[in-house]
Amino acid sequence: MNFSEEINLVNHLKHLFRRGQYILYTTLLDKSIFFIIFVILAHKYSVSEYGALTTVFVLGYILVSFFDLGLSSYFQRRTASNLSKSIEEFYSAFTYRVISYFVILLITFLYNYWDSNRDLSLSVIIVSSVFVFNTSWFLIKIFYGLNEYALVFKRFIASRCILISSTALLIFTDISLTIYSVAFFIAALIEFILLSVPLSKKVGFSFKISFRGEILKRIFSSSVPMGLGLFFVFVYDRIDILLIQNIIGLEWVGFYAVAYSFYKIPYIISGVFLTPLYTDLSAEFESNKKINYDRIKKLGLFLVIFSIISICFIFFLSDFIIEIIYGEKYLLSAEILKMLVIALPFLFLNNLTGVTLNSIQKEKLVFYSITVAVVVNISLNIMLLNIVGIMGAVIATILTESLVFMLQLNFLLKYKTILNQ
Fold first, then answer.
1. Which residue(s) pair with 419 in the sheet?
2. Using alpha carbons only, what angle is made at residue 67 by residues 64 and 70, rounded to the nearest 5 degrees?
């Protein structure tokens, strides 16, 4: 890369960062508060109880992400390229989400019915909270399509203040996890209200219940491949939690969950660049049927360099950080984390290739690659957890992230006529 190319890369990164800086602030606020909350919960309750709570959250996110069916990503792209069509389609999409909530509740009841040891009340409250938070994310993606990043950040603050305040009070009380979980639900409702008001007043989106089959059919023809792709990403990303619980026990879920929370911290930076990039590429492809491939390659180089720096930092400081934050009882998580971070470069890159394929409306190819990854990931976890224990989940994660990147890069290179180089 010559000097002028380096200048262009820096300028492009600055342009994306200026627009995506509030995504960084929002993500940092969100991740930091949830991180602090779960640290407090890990200290407050036993490793097994912490593992049980993690399992309920994973169940909620799996169910909710499946029924999202790609609507969040679809509406970011749709709003960026055609606002009037986005408003027209929103009514039916929102009605579908309301209906899907009752299906999710039914599945939650059935899941708990088969095991009387599970806390039904905790599961219902947490799953409902996850659903409402996810619905807010649906609205957030619309704002991102409009390049309204600052507005989202300001409305995040109120709901997160409720969560962190209630968690601080938890230190001085002895309430159950079930009672405490109500705070999650209240915070989720407040966040949804704070986002829905400006969306309806400023932009014209209406939250009326209106179900039009032909509109949903049109939406789902494009969104479902994206949605199933994102769902399978989450499945291979978190299914190991459920497999660890059933194969080697809840205590190992606690150790692995702590390591995984640190593993995902560097990933926060990717949203700062990839979210505005997705909006730009979607609008660019809609108008020109081509996108600038050169800046995608340069952004990929930046993400790889950042991931390598993150690996070095985490590898040498993981023992110290985990002992300081979580205490000695979670030191085993540091050994898991040192291996897990090897997957970081592939995690960054396969998100870049996935965003690019979705922006050029090749979401089916993303879906195909993720489907293969899910099958491979589940198979590897089942086999390796039984053979090498918790490190089996780590190896499965590394191999799966690398497989997704190689498959999506191969798909992307087949569309050279679309990619301006």
1. 291
2. 105
From residue 164, give the alpha-carbon distance in Å to each of 41, 60, 97, 187.
12, 21, 28, 10
User: Token pair of 154, please?
Assistant: 């300001």
| Residue 418: C-alpha distances to residues 57, 281, 361 (Å) | 40, 11, 11
Q: Counting beta carbons within 10 angstroms of the beta carbon of residue 336, is it exposed (0 to 12), middle (13 to 18) or buried (19 or more)?
A: buried
**Measured distance CA(372)–CA(369) in Å, rounded:** 5
* Cα 143 to Cα 150: distance, rounded to the nearest angstrom: 10
Instruction: Kindly provide the b/e burial profile for residues 220-230, where b requires at least 16 CB atoms within 10 angstroms of the residue's own CB.
Output: bebbbbbbbbb
pLDDT digits (tens, 9 = 90+) for 90-116: 888 888 888 999 999 998 888 777 766
- Which two three-digit tokens encode residue 80? 């960026």
C-beta separation of 256 from 97 below 8 A: no
The enclosing H or E element of 118 equals none
Average pLDDT, the chain: 80
Evaluate whether 133 touches 97 at the Cβ level (below 8 Å). no
Q: What is the pLDDT of residues 200-245, one digit of tens each?
A: 876 777 777 777 778 888 888 878 877 777 777 777 667 777 788 7
CA-CA-CA-CA torsion sign (404, 218, 144, 163): negative
